[in-house]
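Predict structure. Chain length: 157.
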Amino acid sequence: MIKVGCASQPTFIVSISARSITFPAAPLGRYPITMPDSPTRVMFVEDEATLRKSYEMFFADRYEMEFAASGAEAVTKVKPFGPEVVVLDLRLPDTDGIEVMRRVREIDPQVPVIITTAYVSMGPLVSMLALGRTSFMTKPFDLNDLARKIDEASILP
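Prediction complete.
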C-alpha cells in the first residue's frame, strides 16, 4: 500500500500488487487496472535496417518483437510468432504491403495491422483500410506515437 496525495488534495491509498493497481474511486469504491501477463508481441515488417534497429532499441523493454525485412520473410514468421500487432511498411522490396497484409490475414484474420509509409497514396491505403482492423502512420513519425497506436491496437476485442 502506498499513500498518495498533495497539498491541495486529500491523501488516498493505492494498492499495488505484482499484476494490478487498485485506485479508490468515490462513490463506487475501487476499480482495478490489470497489467498484462506478458509483453505484447509485435512484428515489425520493415526493409530499412536503420529503422528496424531503431524499433529494436526503442521498444526493447516494452514489447516482445520479431522483425522481417521483406514480405516473404514476414509471412513465414507470422504463424510461429503469433503477433498481437503487425507494423507493416507499405513498400517492400519483394512485394507491396497490401499483398503481405492479405496473406497475414489468411493466417490470422483478427491481427491488427499498422501501416507505415513515406508515400501517401490513397488507393492502396483505402484498399488496406477496407480490410478492417487497420490504421496507418506517415513517415517520419515519433516512436512514442507508434507505441500509442500499438498499445491501442493490442487491446482491441
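Summary: Residues 38 and 80 are 17 Å apart (CA to CA).
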